[in-house]
Amino acid sequence: QVQLVESGGGLVQPGGSLRLSCAASGSIFSINAMGWYRQAPGKERELVAAITSGGSTNYADSVKGRFTISRDNAKNTVYLQMNSLKPEDTAVYYCNALVEKWAGLVVEYWGKGTLVTVSS
Q1: Per residue of the chain (120 residues), what is the pLDDT tens digit?
Q2: Burial class of residue 72 (count of CB atoms within 10 Å of its CB; 0-12, 13-18, 19+)
Q3: Fewer CB within 10 Å, N or C, the chain?
Q4: CA 101 to chain centre
Q5: Whose CA is closest to 38, among 92, 77, 84, 76?
Q6: Neighbouring C-beta atoms of residue 10, cutoff 10 Å
């Protein structure tokens, strides 16, 4: 019904950069907010960055100044530009969206995740 398709993950050296993308498709009236979460092995999933339809953003303290979240509302796509990557950033990154359906309900959706590995 609603799919979040992620791309851009992979292997990168410390100090390098990656750009993640997540495109939402399906039965969507509007998307109230989109964001990126990550989960490392044995750890809880945590918020990395989020952005509302109006452009308001929030970042985890650990990524402030290094990561930038943005979105293209016309394409229902969110991006995460990751610079100055550290080994601690290694995790599975999940796309998240709060989708307002045509009936007025707001439903939370998750992508399947994309692996980011930061290693030399």
Answers
A1: 899 999 999 999 999 999 999 999 998 888 999 999 999 999 999 999 999 989 999 999 999 999 999 999 889 999 999 999 999 999 999 999 999 887 788 999 999 999 999 999
A2: exposed
A3: C
A4: 20
A5: 92
A6: 11
